[in-house]
Each structure stands twice: as structure tokens, then as C-alpha cells.
């Protein structure tokens, strides 16, 4: 049998994880059929990155036994984290191997990886929604496993505001990506029926006070956050400290992952999965998550690990699990064979741990799946969020 060192031939190693001791045969195609999976997740950068990496690792453990071909895993580690993402992607792609790249929970990272995957004709399994530069890319080599945030935002605002066109304030970060998204969001609000729309830019640490003052003057019914996680935390702190959030519905829909660490001051946000969903498969998945974390990650490193799986973990697990399952079933490898396999493919509701089945849109390569409108309640002591579900959107 191959041990862990035989299986993983990489520019790094998976930290604190032991892959299953599995016999990886050479398969019918011989040594040239070796599979190389490049994991772009940045270790311990933040809770999002850590949870994404954990989801990928647990899928490797669960689905690794399906493969009858050699597998190597190339990863981003602390030692090579200084390497620019684009250069690292080139290094992750190995010659004479069937290459796949997975990861990229951060929007800018996923955009860079998507560009390289198109250039090198290498399949990229994006755990996020569509990359920011999707409109400039041929998406043939990109599969997106997160929810489409534009669709989710439109549905959620429609569900919240269809009978109420009260004032709405859109707060956005200064980065270009947020400004661009805000332009689209404002146009979408107008199409829904909003007429009283104001945009507010967060441009410095002191802007939290300026925002509070502006909210007091404008008295918006809805406050939409198109902001980075740091800015969202700043806004949340300002709203809580001044008790001004009462009567204001705070909405998030732009990749802020309100189920991460309780810092998002959201009254509502869209999600495709949450650990207290009332489905048998979800409860079993949460139990296996805890077992996996306790077995492979010492307590000293669990400060960046949540006590229950969240949507970031879920998307990463589903992306890697679906890739490994496909590799075990496809007689022919290579990007075009895998594209044919995934385009239009459906997944059962039980497999996806959702209410309805999901499928891959053959045009956009987005995973079309359930989207729920939920409100978080975070327990800081137990590092655990529970969610009130307001229904599917």
C-alpha cells in the first residue's frame, strides 16, 4: 500500500492531515494517467481559508478510496504563501499529468486562478460563485460550486421588498470590485421598484461613525452591505454600539459569508447550506465533521475552526467530492472529457444535503441549487452559529 508520503508528491504537504492509507493502482492508462490536484487555499490566512481547506481535506479522505489511479496533491503552504497566486498556479500544474485546481474562497484569488485555468486549459473547481472577471473569460474550464450571488441577491431583495419599497442604503467598500457590484446592485434595485436609493462608501476606519450619522438622518428601512469582511465587522460594531440597527433590516449578499464568525451584522443573507438544516443527512455530515476535526487537527490549531461545518466548508467538500467521484467513473481523463461529464449533470437532494436536486448549468457552469434566506444567531462562547430559515428564495 501507498503511505501518505507516497501519495502526496507536492510543493508542500497537507498540514496535520493523514490521508487514508489506500491502494492507488496505476489504472488502465499506466503512469501517465496520474492525477494531480492543485489546492490553492491559503492555510490559516483566515477562518474562511481554513474552513475551505478542511472541506477539501475531508473530501479527500471520504472519496480517495474511489480512485484506481495515482493521485498527487500540490498545495499552498506557509512556506510558499509568499509566492504570487498566478505564479503558484503555474507551479501547481504538472507536466504529463491530468491537472485540476480547486479552491479560491477569496474573490480576487478565484479570478486569478480562473485566468490561469483558461490559459492552460486546466479545469478549475471554484468553491466560490463566479469569478469577478467571469465576463472576460471563456468559462469552459471553470465550474462554480458556490451560489450565484447576483441571482441570490435579486431573489432575496424580491422576497424582502416586493410589497415594500422603503428607502434602501447600499454601503460598499472602496475596492473596485465592490464599486462595480454596487453599480449593478443599484440598477437591480431600480428594476425591482425602489426609488429612494442611496450609496455610501466606507473609505476609512472612522467611516463607521459617519455611517451611523447618515443612517440617523436618512432613516433607511434596508441597509445592504457590499463590503469586505473587515468593513462589515466595523459596521456591525458601530450599529451595535449605537443601537441604531433597531428597525433597520441589514442585508448581505456579496460573498461576506455571514455564517463565519458572527461579525456580520445581518438580519438576512442568502445561503445554500447550514448545519442546523432539518435533514437527516445534514446531521450526519456535522457529526463526521467534528470527528474529522478532532482526529486530524490538534486543539492548539482549532482556534480557526468552527464547531460545526458552514457553507464555505460545504462548498469545498462538494467541489472536491464531485471531482474525485467523476475521476473514479470516467474512463477517459482530460479536461474535455470531464467537461462533458459535468455539463448538465444532476445531483440528488440527498447527495447535496438540500431540499431539492441540483444541477450544473451547461452554459454558465454554475451549480444551480437551493438558496435559502436565513438569519444568523452566533454563540461566541461555543463558536457556533444557528440559523432561522425564512424560506427558499
TrEMBL record:
Organism superkingdom: Bacteria
Protein name: ABC transporter substrate-binding protein
Amino acid at each position: 500500500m501507498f503511505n501518505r508520503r507516497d501519495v502526496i508528491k507536492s510543493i508542500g504537504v497537507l498540514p496535520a492531515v493523514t490521508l487514508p492509507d489506500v491502494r492507488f493502482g496505476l489504472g488502465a492508462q499506466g503512469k501517465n494517467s496520474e492525477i494531480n490536484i492543485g489546492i490553492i487555499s491559503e492555510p490559516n490566512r483566515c477562518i474562511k481559508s481554513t474552513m475551505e481547506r478542511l472541506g477539501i481535506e475531508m473530501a479527500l479522505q471520504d472519496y480517495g478510496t474511489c480512485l484506481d489511479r495515482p493521485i498527487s496533491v500540490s498545495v499552498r503552504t506557509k512556506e510558499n504563501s509568499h509566492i504570487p497566486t498566478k505564479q503558484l498556479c503555474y507551479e501547481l500544474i504538472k507536466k504529463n499529468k491530468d491537472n485540476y485546481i480547486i479552491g479560491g474562497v477569496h474573490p480576487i484569488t478565484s479570478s486569478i486562478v480562473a485566468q490561469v485555468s483558461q490559459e492552460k486549459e486546466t479545469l478549475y473547481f471554484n468553491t466560490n460563485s463566479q469569478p469577478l472577471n467571469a465576463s472576460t473569460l471563456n468559462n469552459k474550464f471553470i465550474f462554480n460550486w458556490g451560489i450565484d450571488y447576483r441571482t441570490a441577491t435579486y431573489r432575496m431583495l424580491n422576497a424582502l421588498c416586493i410589497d415594500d419599497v422603503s428607502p434602501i442604503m447600499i454601503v460598499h467598500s472602496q475596492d473596485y470590485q465592490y464599486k462595480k457590484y454596487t453599480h449593478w446592485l443599484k440598477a437591480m434595485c431600480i428594476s425591482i421598484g425602489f426609488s429612494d436609493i442611496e450609496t455610501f462608501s466606507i473609505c476609512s476606519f472612522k467611516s463607521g461613525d459617519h455611517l451611523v450619522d447618515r443612517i440617523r438622518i436618512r432613516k433607511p428601512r434596508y441597509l445592504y452591505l457590499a463590503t469586505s469582511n473587515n468593513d462589515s465587522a466595523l459596521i456591525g460594531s458601530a450599529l451595535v454600539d449605537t443601537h441604531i440597527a433597531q428597525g433597520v433590516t441589514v442585508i448581505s449578499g456579496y460573498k461576506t459569508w455571514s455564517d463565519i464568525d458572527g461579525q456580520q451584522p445581518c438580519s438576512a443573507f442568502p445561503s445554500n447550506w447550514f448545519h442546523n438544516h432539518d435533514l437527516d443527512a445534514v446531521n450526519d455530515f456535522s457529526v463526521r465533521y467534528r470527528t474529522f476535526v478532532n482526529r486530524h487537527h490538534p486543539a492548539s490549531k482549532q482556534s480557526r475552526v468552527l464547531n460545526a461545518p458552514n457553507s464555505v466548508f460545504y462548498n469545498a467538500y462538494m467541489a472536491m467530492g464531485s471531482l474525485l467521484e467523476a475521476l473514479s467513473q470516467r474512463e477517459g481523463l482530460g479536461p474535455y472529457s470531464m467537461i462533458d461529464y459535468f455539463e448538465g449533470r444532476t445531483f440528488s437532494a440527498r447527495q447535496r444535503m438540500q431540499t431539492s436536486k441540483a444541477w450544473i448549468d451547461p452554459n454558465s457552469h454554475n451549480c444551480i441549487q437551493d438558496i435559502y434566506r436565513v438569519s444568523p444567531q452566533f454563540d461566541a462562547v461555543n463558536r457556533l452559529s444557528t440559523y432561522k430559515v425564512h424560506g427558499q428564495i
